[in-house]
Design a protein that fits this description.
- The chain has 3 domains: 165 residues, Rossmann fold, CATH 3.40.50; 242 residues, ANL, N-terminal domain (Rossmann fold, 3-Layer(aba) Sandwich); 114 residues, no CATH class.
- 38% of the residues lie in helices and 22% in strands.
- It contains 17 helices and 24 strands.
- It is globular, with a radius of gyration of 25 Å.
Length: 550
Amino acid sequence: MPRRTLLDFYADLSSTPGEFVVYDDGYRSWSYSYADVVGAARVFAGRLRSEGIAKGQAVTIWAENRAEWIIALWGCLLEGVVLVPIDYRASADFLTRVSDIVKARVVLVGDAVDREAIGNHRPIWHVSELRKESGGLVAPKPEAETEARAKAEATSAGDTAEIIFTSGATAEPKGVVITHKNILANIVPIEREVAKYKKYARPFLPIRFLNLLPLSHMFGQAMATFVPPMLPGVVVFTRSFAPEDIISQIRTRRVSVLVSVPKILEVLREYVLRVAPEAAGDPGKIHWVRKWWKYRRIHRLFGFKFWAMVVGAAPLDPELEAFWGRLGFLVVQGYGLTETAPIVTLNHPFHASRGAVGKPMAGVEVRIAEDGEILVRGENVTTGYYNAPEETRAAFKDGWFHTGDIGEIDAKGQLHIRGRKKEMIVTVMPMALKTRVKTNGTATMKTNSPRRIMPTILKASFASFIFCSPFASVPLNLGFYRPQQLYADCRSRVPTKILNVLARKLAVLARDPTPKTCVQVIPPVACLILFGDNYTHFGRYGRLEFKKSV
């Protein structure tokens, strides 16, 4: 049927038979059918209505992946209430800041968050109240149902469905406005493609997805809320990310597809190599039957119904993709951003191109700028940032959204990601390093020779060794590299915003002086001391970046 708004998609859920969501919290599991989710969403919509939460007002949700999260989303959509998802791993302070920005009427919380940390500034509802066996909610009256249908008819494609905020580590959080039209522009092309192969999937139904991506992120939300009903399929949520628990869920629940970030695939690879060392070798090009037989122990470990991994939210290492492909599993990756709701390109499951992130979705235009930046245009692209006109103008130029990512399109039309625009400016190496600076208003090049850089690199390496040494009984009393001294040395040359990030990094090092934290903290600190704020700043994900010009 035509999809004018997301509520048209919701109308199909009530007629879909079978199981929809399974939630395993490690102690027990709950199962919800499609009818259960539809009914619970209507009940939640009735509660929003009874509390006087009107169309266009906001509700924040701070909860782990679970069926009630999806119920809350549909309940808000039914009433026209804007849902504002917050990653359950985010801090209570971040939740409070976002709730204040959107003037949230209610905060929905889960079991995996600190409810007490957010205070009592606004009403707090626990998502367990939406559970089907709970008597805490009362079914809406018939006249309320009539009112709800009228509101659904009044909903337009341009209405705001969600506002998703960035982390805001060193600045005010920035909210991406997502409309019904943005989401439909992504899911309708996928639905059409799924329809072509649906008849071939019938012997294998139901297709079960183990979704480990947070629902607060658009890709995880799409793979849990909108894709399974197309088959129809079942989405499984679990609280544990331990490799043995993930594999156990896949095997015992007969999961076909794992949805996760690439890091999960790395963890699973390490686990597989421990229990099945034969996976380390490369057999070369052999027939798929021989390949399956060679790695039959691994397929038995995952269960014989498991065949694919869908990854998103971070770049996928080509070697990691090759490893799982060598074992006989399909790895599907795509490219997108929150601003594109979220998919820009996606590898076709049956025509995947290794090392690429696929071709643009139907209705999405992708262009490579002269400097290599990926530009996107289409109905899936956000209308802008919430109450942030300057940021919106900076992100959109001539109708194209500037992603900040560098890429190229090959002869087959496949997109390849090469990195972030800021990160492509300069590479930090213990060799001649160049940075653009201005002298008396004229752009010049300044070269730092290995002789100048090597002392700092050696100091950082030596400090890493000392920090990790079992003989260092008091790691914080290390002469020139103790965290407090580093912080003090940088105060005179680093602005407050960067200083706050640096302080957090050094606090991590003070608490946990291990090889991992030393590698993450000491080299950036060394570069800060050597180059100062004139050339460096902390960019995306807290990584140290070099400025293009100052």
